Amino acid sequence: MAPSRDDNHLPAVTVKSQHGEGHLLHRSLAQKPSMVDSAHGIELKLASGQTIIDACGGAAVALIGHGNEEVTQAMVEQARKVSYVHTQAYTTAPAEELADIILEGNPYGLEKAFFVGSGSEAVESALKLARQYFYEKNEPERLHLVSRQQSYHGNTMTAMSISTNQARKAPYQGFCYPNVSHVSPAYAYQYKHDTESEAEFTERLLAELDAEFLRVGPEKVVAFIAETVSGATLGCVAAPKGYYKGVRALCDKYGILLFLDEIMCGVGRTGTYFAFEQEGIAPDLVTIAKGLGGGYAAIAGVLMHEKVVDVLRQGSQVFNNGHTYQAHPISCAAALAVQRIVQRDRLVARCAKMGQVLERRLREELGGCGTVGDIRGRGLFWGVEFVRDRASRETMAPGVAFGARVQQIAFRKGVAVYPGAGTVDGVRGDHLLVAPPFTVTERQLEHICRVLREAVEEAEGCLRDESECGLA
């Protein structure tokens, strides 16, 4: 019989379910995650006693490292003042100041910030804003969204609809937003023809996008959405030279909004505060998340260009979207403290500098590994792609799960990296991400890259003799 409860008496905590497990649903029912007792700097202390170097910042989240007392104090002080208000009637100082510190001087024409609780919420909100922009302009026929293959934009339904991560979408086919189409990724390593120059590859990608706009009907398209530097699905792929300038021109030609997703690559991760700064363009909408709160609180943001804000200002004067925990005071206080530290300690410049060290060390350590096909990235945001054959760039069989093997071996050796699969087309291909906190030292980077090489070499040995490897 289930224990009874009333307002004054809660049932005693039951540690195990009837299946002998705890009641928390993890990402997998088959694999239990490691218990973390504490974290400080770039290290995680596990309940097992093992220390793990967080070489991927969780998921490129831990911008300033773990356990920063300055951020903790800011959260505590805000909790003492006011822990929650409803934004329909109220605002708070940390929310206002966070928007101001990010958008001081309207950088690149970005004027307003809208804060929510996750990257998926931010993407969903940005897509709703893009649609409302055209609704307010009396262009209701604009319903279509164009994004790229091998992209990932979030787990909510419209965000998932514009994504093409096959593994995450598989159970939801027929359950997504229908007015979506996709063009080729700006992914030179596997998609550029050997006979093409970089400029010719760029030209082909832009011609494909133009053709897709025309096929749908430009007057029906709301926005083109892209990760400025791709995240976990492709593994830190930057577009070829001239690509984003061409995309910006096409969007301007047809009156289509350009929406750049910088949830993983933004907030300094690529060596400039916005990744798009290195492309010489400005978007109409941009989403940021992971580095915004640095892992200290759940927060994400939509940043909008003044041209988008002006349409609302001249129309309904309302963004028809809201969340209960929108601009949450404690989350905003945490993010504000993180961003103040980033500015004060010049951590974006440090990210760019240490990124050069990381690139050099990755190439030195992994250059001799036969399975390493490509090493790419910017700032402290680097991907390593694995192949069966370097010359042909042929991938390994999906069942080998090579990236996951490397990740598991590296973890056993005390270094956490972020694995990815289905790199090339959603099924084939393996890669991993290295994205440590901006506070990482050169000595720590040397250790990370050395352990990564050892892990790759051990995984290569496993391929040669499966019987000697417990990961088969």
UniProtKB/TrEMBL annotation:
Keywords annotated in UniProt: Pyridoxal phosphate
Matches recorded under CDD domains: OAT_like
Entry superkingdom: Eukaryota
Metal-binding among keywords: no
One Pfam family here: Aminotran_3
PANTHER family to which the protein is assigned, alphabetical: AMINOTRANSFERASE, AMINOTRANSFERASE CLASS-III
NCBIfam families to which the protein is assigned, alphabetical: PRK07483.1
UniProt family annotation: Belongs to the class-III pyridoxal-phosphate-dependent aminotransferase family.
Name of the protein this chain belongs to: Aminotransferase
